[in-house]
Amino acid sequence: MAGKKRAAKKKTPGWFLYILKCRDSTFYTGITTDLDRRLDQHNDGTASRYTRSRKPVTMVYSETCDDHSAALKRECAVKKLTREEKELMVKKSRTTVARKKTLDPR
Fold first, then answer.
1. C-alpha of 25 from chain center
2. What is the pLDDT of residue 97?
3. 27-32 and 58-65 as β-strands: parallel, antiparallel, unpaired?
């Protein structure tokens, strides 16, 4: 085996926690490795029974997680939050994004 190079381990995609706001103003929390694909699935009615009858949905929050296990744990924690606490998470994330855009002179 000396002299042979090992194949580079393929990096798996990152995991994300996301919150959707449904047509009836309820929140749906989930995890995925591809935010755009998952949002499309929800709006196509192929992602979950909950969002299927509450289309269209919009993504109002997302955050990266280290791995699948961390994403599942974070999802469980967020699902235990009250609606008001989730609304505060969404509001804080939008404020942070808006602040970054005003500081970035592109």
1. 18
2. 60
3. unpaired
pTM of the model: 0.80
CA 54/CA 84 separation, integer angstroms: 20
Pairing of strands 15-21, 27-32: antiparallel
> H-helix or E-strand containing 16?
strand 15-21
Instruction: For the chain, give the mean pLDDT.
Output: 87
Please report the DSSP string for 53-75 in residue order.
Answer: TT-S-EEEEEEEESSHHHHHHHH
- Comparing 7 with 50, the larger pLDDT belongs to 50
As assigned by CATH, the class of the 15-103 domain is alpha beta
Stretch 82-92: mean pLDDT: 96
Which residue in 24, 57, 64 sits closest to 41, CA to CA?
Answer: 57
